[in-house]
Amino acid sequence: MRLTALKCAIAALAVTLAAPAFANPAPATSTASANCRNTGSFERWLDEFKREAAAKGISAKSIAEASPFMTFDPDVIRRDRGQGVFQQSFLQFSDRMVAGYRMQHGANQIKKHAALFAKVEKQYGVPAPVLTAFWGLESDFGANTGKHNILRAISTLAFDCRRSEFFRMQLFDALRILDRGDLVIGEMNGGDWAGELGAMQFTASDYYNHAVDFDGDGRRDLVKSVPDTLASAANFLSSFGWTRGEPWLQEVRVPANLPWDQADLEIKHPRSQWVAWGVKPAYGTLPGDGLQASLLLPMGRFGPAFLAYPNFKAFLGWNSAMVYSTTVAYFATRLDGAPPVGRGSGTVNVLTPQQMSEVQTLLAKHGYDVGKVDGKLGSLTRAAVKKAQLKTGLPADSYPTVELIDKLRGQTGGAMR
Predict the structure, then answer these.
(1) pTM: predicted TM-score of the whole model, two decimal places
(2) What CATH number did the domain enclosing 10 receive?
């Protein structure tokens, strides 16, 4: 669920973004773990892992079939530690990812598989545009699922000191996929270093825990079976609390005098309150009812604005990187009939990675928690930016600006705490 076609597209841009993966990313790591060094023998580690796998009930046959592929690749570690995805703005990313051919191909897929989508929605409640949006962004509708056996990448990352426990569990579950008979060893292919699998690019654990046999052939095949692929994605989204029949994202227009500190995914109000504050629909209607919604400003108060409904949390569950989650949710609204997103109400100057690092350094100096200073606008940095904006009297839209940098530079010591 993370890279493949998108990884190639974004790597070509040589950009850095807010999260390392495209779906349900591995847990964040500390600076210390990111800089750790591997010691000991991979072969000795692998022998111990195989013994533990056998003790967990994984068959000797599956372990033997996987063994030739469970090798160490230092290039996987280099690429994992050097990965940089998602410093593009929402408009930069969405303009590229929600391209014309994906819109056309997505619409064609919805029409082609209309009966299947209806059956999946009846069982899981997730509509065709949402499933198609993920399908399109994750693998270009199954066209780019990867050609490298995932066991080598996962084994390498399970041995690596940075996120060993996470990938150790992934490796156990990859063997369980073989054991269960969902795939044969030659079908365990994905991206060349990140270890995702199938047309929805599931991690091995997500595959093992959420894949379903929807075509009734006795296998959970997310590589070749479209029914299994779409139903498994719906099952995965439903595990994050998807509510049947409710919206997920709606573009809106916001007034200049909005209480900007209320623009936060952690803050919810009924739509009636947003309407009372002057929020208007960018298309369609915005009922003044009690449905809860948060105001999402992916590029601050001058950029595009959305109401994010409770179902949006399923997009974040799939992938916590805000630019990806917002883009795929927006893509789904387009496939559902929404027009192209507006450009906002003013000019948005996107900070460079160097400027973002300076923001983080200044925020940390004044006592705000930004996590790692890495030049990436993640959730901790956005929360710290909002607090600093409130302290300095700037509109608290959680989006860093050059004006905020100047304000922070002008403060001394801990005056802003």
Answers:
(1) 0.89
(2) 1.10.8.350
Reported as a single tens digit per residue, the pLDDT across 380-399 is 999 999 999 999 999 999 99
- Looking from the CA of 225 toward its CB, the CA atoms found within 13 Å total 20
**221 plus 361 within the same structural domain:** no
The number of residues making up the chain comes to: 417
Question: pLDDT > 70: what percent of the chain?
Answer: 88
Ramachandran sector of residue 245 (left: φ over 0; alpha: ψ -120 to 50; beta: rest)? left
SS3 assignment, position 403 = helix
Q: What is the dihedral of CA 18, 24, 29, 34, to 10 degrees?
A: -80
327 found inside a domain: no
Domain membership flag for residue 288: no
Other CB atoms within a 10 A radius of the CB of residue 29 amount to 17
CB 54 within 8 A of CB 60: yes
Using CB atoms within 10 A of its CB, is residue 359 exposed (0-12), middle (13-18) or buried (19+)? buried
- Token pair, residue 81, equals 């530690």
- Dmax over CA atoms of the chain, in Å, equals 67
317 bridge partner residues: none
Residue 31 backbone phi and psi in degrees, to 5: -60, -40
φ and ψ at residue 306, rounded to 5 degrees = -140, 150
Confidence of residue 26 (pLDDT cuts 50, 70, 90): low
Model confidence at 35, pLDDT cuts 50, 70, 90, reads low
231 shares its domain with 369: no
Q: Residue 255 and residue 277: Cα distance in Å, rounded?
A: 8
Q: Are residues 220 and 360 both part of a single domain?
A: no
Residues 88, 348: Cα–Cα separation, whole Å: 13
Is 79 within the bounds of a domain? yes
Task: Tell me the backbone φ, ψ of residue 136, rounded to 5 degrees.
Answer: -70, -45
Residue-number span of the structural domain to which 395 is assigned = 353-410
23 and 152 belong to one structural domain: yes
Domain boundary among 221, 238, 255: 238
How high is the pLDDT of residue 81?
A: 66
Q: How far is CA 316 from CA 120, 268, 329, 371, 379, in A?
A: 21, 16, 10, 19, 12
- β-strand partners of 250: 307
**Domain boundary residue among 192, 208, 238?**
238
Q: How far apart are CA 232 and CA 318, in angstroms?
A: 12
When divided into structural domains, the chain yields a total of 2
Residues 149, 187: contact at Cβ < 8 Å?
no
Q: Please state, as a whole number, how many other Cβ atoms lie within 10 Å of the Cβ of residue 13.
A: 14
The phi, psi pair for 296, rounded to 5°, reads -110, 120
- Whether 43 is in a domain gets the answer yes
